[in-house]
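Example with several molecule types.
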Amino acid sequence: EPEVTQTPSHQVTQMGQEVILRCVPISNHLYFYWYRQILGQKVEFLVSFYNNEISEKSEIFDDQFSVERPDGSNFTLKIRSTKLEDSAMYFCASSEVPPGLSYEQYFGPGTRLTVT
Amino acid sequence: RKEVEQDPGPFNVPEGATVAFNCTYSNSASQSFFWYRQDCRKEPKLLMSVYSSGNEDGRFTAQLNRASQYISLLIRDSKLSDSATYLCVVHGGSQGNLIFGKGTKLSVKP
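Resulting structure tokens for the full complex:
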């Protein structure tokens, strides 16, 4: 069964450093998403991406964040200068079509980011 | 008003019990609704989509009441493996961002 993969599974970085989180969405999917979940809190939407551009972003997704699809398979989330409050689990998701058409999003296993 | 509200639980039930989860959402324009389950420190996994007519998948039944902006999930004959946090999820935006509830924790005991 096809699945979303993410690397690394755990990233530890110092405050102020740049991190890149990587995702390989399901191959025939066209819509890609990043979410985060701070420990003990709910899953929060960050950004959606379609046709090589951002479709929608939340208030969390400020200028410190960027996304890219550098090739035909990878989808990355970059945090330019990490802060302590960026520590969270970051989930990548993909869907074949937008959920407005009742197609579901499938999540990767996540990258646990720890900022020290 | 919170966008997606759920009873946080925990719900502690014996094996074989029937358990119901409820959820309300605030955006009347939402078009898609889902239940996901999340095991501790794992990713959310899609359990089922929720349709206006209601839908059933084995021991799981989901219902949607658009007028009341209310979603439910019923689990019959609960198993130990059903222990997880159940997330009520609503489609939020034009390009498909999902809005998650905080989840209801279920613990099924032998």
